[in-house]
Amino acid sequence: TVCMKVIDTCRQCDTMICKTVTITCLTNCTWKHKIGGFEVWNNCDSNKTHKNIIGKFYLNQNYNCSKKSVRKWTVNNTFVGYGEHLYYPVTKNGTYTVCMTVYDSCNKCDTTLCRTTTINCFPGCNWKSKVNDFYVASNCDSNKTPVYINGMFILNKNYKCTKRKVWKWTMNGVVSYSEKLHFKVTKNGTYNVCLWLYDSCNNCDTSFCKTVTVNCIKSGCNWKSKIGGFDVRTNCDSSHLKSVNLIGKFYANQNYNCNKKLFRKWMVNNAFAGYGENLYYKVPKNGTYTVCMVLYDSCNKCDTSICKTIQVNCGRLSLDAVTETTDIQLYPNPAQDLVNITFSRQDIQDVQMSILDLSGRVIQVRDITVDNGTSTIDIQQLPPGVYLIRVSMDQQVYHLRLIKN
Asked: Are 129 and 123 in contact (CB under 8 A)?
């Protein structure tokens, strides 16, 4: 359809004139009448060593074109050559799509013809028929030491391949390339043993796996029978000592015979505290302490940990932590018969008070009444000395030092 648009610039108007023309004189690309033959096959049935996909294409004798027609071969969408014939070498079984693209230089058009061929002439990796035996086991039944996991494989006599065989053993991530597996085991457990085989002749591989459980290794670390004693305590009751200590003691059973040194390490709240049979650890404050003894048996090459948790609530430590505050005050201090406790807040009425001696022993516990911010305590029955007044109120604890004359 051809149209002409005319614009009259004088009168400022336009119009459109159209006409349809039919063309029937050009030659089209009817390839069906131009192709004489298109064939694709393979030589799997022959005795030739090299296997090929063979293709052939030729035009009809009635196709007259003085120009050269272009022929292009592709196999599985990959260009493999030009011309009337195809010889494409294959190395493995599979389905192959062979296409011929033809370009008509005279009529300037092209087309593509495709055929599918299946190759199954290569021997597959039928490993079931190639492997005669695959063996994996431990020597636990022999009662021998050390303990080994042994593995081996035997190929079938019918397997004939002049190329080098490739194999690889793996056991829980450990790799070995020896023909037989001989792996030393040092502890009980489950071991996954796999053998990987590669067939160099047929270019294929496979894997065989087996799980082996080892439970015959005797543990030399029967620590329950080796420990003679383990004890942890404090010296909080010893008022004559200046510091509070965690005292630990460990000793092995008399039946434990090892000519090597027994390694002992003390830990307090996961921090290193010393070596040896005895522990003397200075306690900085009251609280919960977890004391552990880490033992290493040099003869049997094993270790264990023994722990004990102890609560330290020692008055002497509290005396070292007297609360510096103006919220509560004692007067007079030193005192002889009566002592007053004054509070900065006037709204306080009932509080709990405790009196402790230097050893941390609680002497008195009482609820006291506060009147106008002051409470008076009778201390006539206390022997002369230094005491700790512990006051609990509003979910807080205050410590005050008191000297009794």
From this structure: no
